[in-house]
Amino acid sequence: MASKSRLLKEARECAKAPADLGISLQPDERNIHTWRGHIRGPSGTPFEGGTFELTLSVPQNYPLFPPSVRFKTKIFHPNVHFKTGEICLDILKGAWTPAWTLLAVCQAISALMADPAPDSPLNCDAGNLLRGGDLRGYASMARCYTLDLASAPARQLS
Amino acid sequence: MAWREQSPERGSQVSSWNPGGPASHRESTLDAAESRPAVSVGEREDFVDAPKTSVSSISGAGEESLTSRPHTEHTVENAEQNPNLNTDSTPARPTDDQILAQENSIREAVAESSPFVGDKEPLAALRKEYEDGSAVFLQKISTLEEKYQAIRRTRGDGNCFFRAFIFAYMEDLVQSNSLQERNRVVTCMRQWKPRLIAAGYQELVFEDAQEMIMDQLNSLGTADPVMLPALETNMRDAGVSQMVVMYLRLLTSAELGQRQEFFSPFILGMFDDCPSVDHFRQRYVEPMGEESDHVHIVALTDALQVPIRIVYLDQSLGAAMAGVGHAEGAAVNHHDFVPEALQNATGPNAIPKVHLLYRPGHYDILYPSKSA
């Protein structure tokens, strides 16, 4: 199966990823189609200091079709569903290309954390704060949730 | 980086703030204005430049199609988080997994009804499609029949150009038993490896697909009668066919990326939503299922140095243009896509051996008559 060969290569690549990337990513030991990732909250954002866990479920026809990615750690962000952790990101849907890798997807999600797109919110409370220009309100809510829910010792990112 | 590019826009939206809001989000903006106390002006601007982004390599990832989310979401979300709203009337939004599952089941249904590449059929099969249809089409098919004898259909899944092209090309290699041409294209693909890396693709992204297409090519060119059925079997196999299409898309995209100056006038003129060639590559070339246009065809013919003839079957009556038509009947236009390096050449390589039939939105393979 093409997806398996590709995923094994990606797993090797991820093991070599530099620590300062702020992303760790590895497949489940028993199932190469389920991956777990950790993103360090980008510095200079309300998520700084937090570590956010992601689950990636990779379809059999990967890389022709995108993985399905969710935040497992709760996060207050306009483009992440507060309850389900679902992420609204174009490359996970129609703009997916086989040139992306799972690691690049995590980098894109990290970039999305720093650059929210409040005009297409999955979390309207977060989106409304930003659309209303209340950046301070947004930042303090997001920071509050980061401190409360995402600040367990970041052992995965040594 | 996206944040900094957006900042001025966001600033200007804030200063010209009105509850009507920016076009496509009018309703949800109104909701927001009603359910939330007004924000004091002084607080609005002071955060704009604050966040420093740390990942800068993946620009543009989060934008354009984000805005295409349906409006129902806003309503659902508001309902969930605001207990005062009545939630009963709002249907639950399907999850991404459900949407993907549905898309997969649709694809499977299509797959069962038509293979990636069909069987070779006499051109009469095409006439049959239009028996009760447009007279223009029937006239044009008559004109086509003077030059072409058969057609092979491809699946209409947005990848038909790539699939039709590579099948027709490989089939010609089998029929002509041309080891020279086969070796040329294999060498060409081998030379693409460093070029793909230079174009920014990680090796792990394309190496499996490249090996697969080279294996296919290397197995051709021996005058074995089982060769054609074997080719048909392989190119109908999802594992092979899809990877081959993916590889051709990456080649096309890399060719566009490396000759931006040449291609950008075509792309920026034709696709309103593409601010750059790179954006076009990521949005309309690399994703599977995105349909091909002239730009894709030019880039692929250049990338592989293989000329292609496209024959156009449509409603137009432009008899004045060059075509395979004749004086009285309806002329059928065609266009030869010949790589620049071959344009002044006279050898057999300069004459298109791949003939594709274009009907608006779809490409199939055409087979010239022996006498033509």
Automatic annotation (TrEMBL), chain A:
Domain of life, per lineage: Eukaryota
Any one GO molecular function term: transferase activity
Pfam families hit by this protein: UQ_con
InterPro entries to which the protein is assigned, alphabetical: Ub_conjugating_enzyme, UBC, UBQ-conjugating_AS, UBQ-conjugating_enzyme/RWD
Listed SUPFAM superfamilies: UBC-like
Entry similarity comment: Belongs to the ubiquitin-conjugating enzyme family.
Protein name: UBC core domain-containing protein
Organism whose genome encodes this protein: Symbiochloris irregularis
Taxonomic lineage of the native organism: Eukaryota, Viridiplantae, Chlorophyta, core chlorophytes, Trebouxiophyceae
TrEMBL record, chain B:
Entry EC number(s): 3.4.19.12
Alphabetical list of Pfam families matching this protein: Peptidase_C65
Top-level EC class as recorded in UniProt: hydrolase
Biased composition (Polar residues): 9-18, 53-69, 78-92
InterPro entries: OTU_dom, Papain-like_cys_pep_sf, Peptidase_C65_otubain, Peptidase_C65_otubain_sub1, Peptidase_C65_otubain_sub2
The keyword Hydrolase belongs to this UniProt entry's keyword annotation: yes
Sample GO molecular function, one term: ubiquitin binding
OTU domain sequence ranges: 149-369
Protein name: ubiquitinyl hydrolase 1
Source taxonomy: Eukaryota, Viridiplantae, Chlorophyta, core chlorophytes, Trebouxiophyceae
